[in-house]
Amino acid sequence: MRVRTRSGWNAPTYNVVVLRRLFDIRPAERARASQAAGALFAILAGFTISETARDSLFLASNGAKQLALAYLAIAAIAMVAIAANAWVVRRLGRRGALIVTLVVAATGTAAFYVIPRGSAAGLALYLWTGLIGTVVVVQYWLLAGTRFTTAEAKRLYGPIAASGAIGTLAGALFAWRLLYDLEIEGLLLVASGFYVVAAVLLARDTESVESRLRSAEARPRSKGGTKQPQGTYIRRVVLLTVCATAVALLADWLFKSAAGATFRTDELARFIARYNGIVAALSLVFQLIGTTWLVRRLGVLGMAMLLPSLLLIGGAATVLTAGSFLAIGLTKGADSSLRYSVNRVSTELLWMPVPDRIRASVREPLESAGTRLVQALTAALLLGLATVGLADATLVAVILAGIALVWTVMAAGLRRHYLDQLRKSVNRRSIDPVHQLDVKAIETVVAALSSEDDRRVIAAIHILVARERANLIPPLILRHDSIEVQRAALEAMTTPERTDWIPLTWRLLKATDPRARMLALRALARVDDQTAIVAGLCDDDPGVMAHGVFWSLQQGTAAGVRDNPAVMALLAESGQRGDQARNELIEAIRVDGDKRWVDVMLDVAVTRDVAMIERLALAIEHVPDPRFIPFLMRRLETRAARPAVRRALLAIGEPALDALETALVDPETSKRVRLHVPSTLAAFGSSAAAEILGRQLANERSGAVRYRLLRALARMATQDEIIVDARLLLAELRLHLEEYGRLLALAVPVLADTDDRASAILLRGLLADKVSQALDRAFLALQALHPRENMREIERAIKGDDQRARDHGREFLDTLTHTPFYTRSEAHGIRARLLILGEDLDARERMSRIGLGADIPLTVAESVGRLIREGDRLISACAGYYAIELGTPDLTAVVDEVIAVRPLFEPLGIYHRSTRAL
Amino acid sequence: MPSERPDNDEGSRELDVRVGLGMFASEDQLAHLLAIARQVDVPAGHVLYESARPATTVFQVMSGEIAMHAPEAPSWRVAAGGTAGFVDFMQSRPHSRTAVTATPARLLELDAADYLEYLEDNFEVSHRMLSWLSHEVIADAVARPEAQLLLASAGAAKLPSFAKVELPTVERLMILSRMPAFRGASTQGIANLAQSAVEARFGPGEVIVTAGSSATVVSLLVEGAVELQSPAGLRVKRAGRDFLAHVEELSTAPRLNSVIALSPLIVLQIEREELLDRLEEHADLMMAMFAAIAREQEKLNEVAGVSGIAVATDWK
Questions:
Q1: Smallest CA–CA distance from B109 into chain A, residue
Q2: Torsions phi, psi for A255 (to 5 deg)
Q3: CA of B87, closest CA in chain A: separation in Å?
Q4: For residue A617, which of A683, A698, A692 has the smallest C-alpha distance?
Q5: A168, A295, A388, A837: least surrounded by Cβ within 10 Å?
Q6: Contacts of B294 (CB under 8 A, 6+ apart)
Q7: A255: closest CA among A188, A312, A326, A303?
Q8: Are A718 and A781 spatial neighbours (Cβ–Cβ below 8 Å)?
């Protein structure tokens, strides 16, 4: 129920809030959740009633000593039943198979009503009921996995399992009450009726997760890319189930043995009914007020540890009290009350990030045949112990405690693997930077050196160089016609180990193409070939001659080369020939120059030619000198040269770092330069650079620069493993999450509006983008806080159309932030705001849930009025523009009021009332 | 049925990726491409995708030929070096044609969303591709006999005139957001462009761009009419709110056409460096530009089909 308040129809009453905390079931989910809950209620009520009859009849006619034999027999029969069930699933689908199984269960259970009591009938009923318990419950939860996504499961499995607990309680109470009026066998007919009800309810639910995902046009996941192994996580989850199964059987044996020894036959049925009732009531309490709360408080992993920890304590208490009935009863009670409530929900959630295909292929055999096998082995162990006279409560409790310990340790160590699994379910692929090739692949690449396609030849050369197999490139390739192939080949072959390229390179010295002559001259000069250098000095081409001049001076010992007449002539040369000569001279310095050439480079560093700037910056990287800093700082504006300029500044080192800080702090620095300083600082990858970025982030006023500072810090944290001040990042994260919430709350009425005026569409688009932008920045801060995670993928998943990926992204955030770090005071509220991001809720509901419901304007007009007063000039202007189109007196007054204090509005298109008509 | 190349031919796959997709890519970027590209050998007659299906996969043709059919329209044939599926994918729409291998073909298959991520993650590649593609499209269009048809604008609708007032930012934003070039782009991205743009006005007869020059600004026509003039004698009139010189505005190569004002003009000009900064900040703007080029490429393909030109390309 909702009430009308100042903040509109969005402030729920206290009761609604409390109920929502307990049962967060959304309108679209109600039908599915009710059907699922009703079916589970009926299944477990029926099962509990038949279990009461079964245990009473079996213990009365066969005694507790035959329990181990019964367990073994159930395991053997389960194997056959499971194979049959798999066949039925293939034929009828999961839902159809469960319905058929329930109908068969109802018929078979009813049949026992007419069979006379006796040892054989008692054993048969025990096996039949055990079989139903195994197959039906597993089938039910596997079906549920196809009906609900992870996020739905986290909210709905608690209430659904609660309905199961109510079913168990109701079944126990029914059985207890009915036993006053009916024979024990009469319970079997009632149980059959419940199975039929469950089958009918399931027959009405036809909508699967897949059909809903398809209707939402989910983005298909990648088919290609690197395969992602799932093994470790799945092995661990399987082991949890194995431990849980073994422990359950041991606890059951301990309890039934103790009960059989404590009560007379006529008291036993009523005791079991009463005990089941108490356990079911406890389970129900857990479900009603516990599971949803526990999911929020402990997370999936905390919940997974709860039952094993309690069983460990119970087992230890049983050992210490030498098998007291109280300790055993409490141990079994913990198992019975939590197994189908908290532990069932946590197990279901642990399986959620596993791909459907693997889940079906591993989990079904595990939970049916696998668990029966474990039960059989445990039963065989108990039989063995009984045979040698060691089956006493203390020893069995020791075994139980040991297995519970393993279970607890496995559950405690699951966090890393769970996160990894969620990561895999969100990330599209991993990129392998070192892609190794085998011998056959290398042969294919070498063969490609003979291709007629120049691009393929160059690709082959690059592949061989990247794999350090350049020795496989034959020198004959220098006879290739393409200058680009010659260049790639010479760069690959001119290593100290090789000389076989020299004869063919001499031939290139006489090539008609001056680019070939330059390549040859440079390669040969590097191995002191004087003939080549002289040939260069005599060449007509200014570029070749420049290389000749460079190498002639490289051979000498002169301290400075600036005053050399040949160099002076090159620098003084005008026109295209001069440009070409200087370009090639700088190119030669870039590759082979040294400090003696710095003055020459300074002379050239007046150029405005982008290609020359880039080449010069690359040369500075090779011969760094602080005198180039002013030249380089200015060139940060030029995109084409920027990567080279950054590398040059990096090569200069600390003086460049100081200059970058000065430029960043100085408000007089050109805006374009300031925008690119953060990334340049990040390239330094040092703590000092990170400190500069952090300091500026705390003081920066420009939103664009702030964004780049944050991005640079995130990059340094991820790529260079620089530890960034966590307090600063938390503050940023909080700031952007708050901005996200504030803007979204403010924009709710406008975003929900359908006005198709251009100004309305514009305002809606802008607001949606601003909200998204705030979120981007929050994720950048999160990235810097968690540098080993790929937060961009998580953000993509959360913002995307794929409901499953969105759910996994949210679960990832939940688990990632479930640490003490997010409980400190500076982080207060951050987790709740992060978790609401992935929720499938409309904006109004989302804001209400994080306490911003009161901030949502009541009407579009109120929203626009507040947006006009926004600090962001563009939002303000667009809102003002829309307000003028709406033309209401209130909004017009707001526009005029804002214009009066913000005259800068006019250039944006918002004029005062007095001039608006013009 | 297509068969994935066996693992031991990984060298061949890497060669294909470098040659077919690796334009402008660094070694790291090539690693990204290698992670998303699958090499497949496909027999003749195999349907790669059907018309009206979502454009989730794109193909780079390494050898062989693909035919792309549409009802009551000439087929396109895509040869080695071309690609199939990009025109649809870039326009965020289902496939408009059915693609069938006309001969046995070797292809690189890419999940379209993976490739989109590659373009978004590697701005240095994508902005170079944008420039190169726009040059290819304009060079192709100018060389066609139908150049007049291909380069003319849709014409000016009756819109309010700004002849007497300076364009305020919000109006600029509205004008840009309605231009075909920015269809699908975020309002924030367009707003940033609008704020970076400078309003320029030209009188009739003024030469705004000269063929052979390298423009440092990207010009968007707001009001008035211009004529594109190529050195080969081509004359095309453009009016309405669109790129001033067609998609050549996005090319960094020397201009193929001069642009001359035919009437009083209002032009929004954005420095190329500014434009690239904005594109880097807003991947959606970049994708809108790719979509604009894809639309022009599609027009070229349609014309090629009608003219009976043997091989058209879905994309280059």
A1: A224
A2: -70, -50
A3: 19
A4: A683
A5: A388
A6: B86, B87, B90, B91, B315
A7: A326
A8: no
Which positions ≥6 away from A222 have C-beta within 8 Å? A428, A429, B36, B111, B113, B114
B162 near B266, Cβ under 8 Å?
yes
Minimum CA–CA partner of A227 in chain B: B35
Interface of A with B in 837-876 (CB under 8 A): 874
Closest chain B residue to A711, measured at CA: B281
Between the CA of residue A228 and those of A222, A422, A424, A426, A795, what are the distances in Å?
12, 12, 7, 12, 20
Mean pLDDT over each residue of chain A, to the nearest integer: 84
Task: Answer yes or no: is pLDDT of A2 > 60.
Answer: no
H or E stretch including B107? strand B105-111
* Closest approach of B296 to chain A, Cα-based (Å): 26
Q: Please name the member of A225, A772, A908 whose beta carbon is closest to the beta carbon of B169.
A: A908
Would you say B229 and B262 are in contact if contact means Cβ atoms under 8 Å apart?
no
The mean pLDDT value for A902-918 works out to 54
Least confident of A770-784, B145-159, B279-293: B145-159
Which residues does chain A have within 8 Å of residue B22's beta carbon, measured at their own beta carbons?
459
CA distance A349 to chain B (A): 28
In this complex, the residue of A448, A459, A877 whose CB is nearest that of residue B170 is: A877
The reported pLDDT for the residue numbered B155 is 61
Q: Which of A49, A36, A201 is nearest to A112 (CA)?
A: A49
Q: Around Cβ B270, how many Cβ atoms within 10 Å?
A: 22
> With contacts defined as CB-CB under 8 Å, which chain B residues touch A431?
31-32, 35
Name the DSSP letter for residue A564: -
Least CA distance to A879: which residue of chain B? B170
- Residue A406: φ, ψ to 5°: -60, -45
Rounded Cα gap, residues A770 and A227, in angstroms: 37
**H or E element that contains A201:** helix A186-204
**To the nearest 10°, the Cα dihedral for A764, A766, A770, A773?**
110
What is the three-class DSSP state of B99? Answer: strand
Q: How confident is the model at residue A220 (pLDDT cuts 50, 70, 90)?
A: very low
A contact residues 436-465, partner B, Cβ 8 Å cutoff = 437-438, 440-445, 448, 453, 455-456, 459-460, 462-463
- Residue B102 confidence (pLDDT) above 80: yes
pLDDT of residue B268: 95
User: At how many degrees (to 10) do helices A292-320 and A344-351 cross?
Assistant: 120
Taking Cα atoms as reference points, which of A819, A752, A804, A900 lies closest to residue A152? A804
Please give the pLDDT value at position A428. 55
Hey, which bits of A339-488 come out as E strands?
none
Query: How close does chain B come to A492, measured CA to CA in Å?
Result: 15
Q: DSSP for A578-607, please give it.
A: HHHHHHHHHHHHHHH--GGGHHHHHHHTT-
Q: Which residue of B has its CA nearest to A439?
A: B8
Q: Which residue has the tokens 């600063």?
A: A728
Length of chain B: 316
Q: What is the average pLDDT across A157-178?
A: 83
Q: Which helix (H) or strand (E) holds B98?
A: strand B98-101
Length of chain A in residues, anyone? Answer: 918
User: Could you give the CA distance from residue A811 to residue A828 in angstroms, rounded to a whole number?
Assistant: 19
Q: Do B9 and A440 touch (CB under 8 A)?
A: yes
Closest CA to A134 of A59, A84, A96, A69: A84
> What's the CA gap between A369 and A179, in Å, rounded?
34
In chain A, which among 769-798 make CB contacts under 8 A with chain B?
769-770, 772-773
Please report residues of B whose CB lies closer than 8 A to that of A907: 168-169
Closest chain B residue by Cα to residue A881? B170
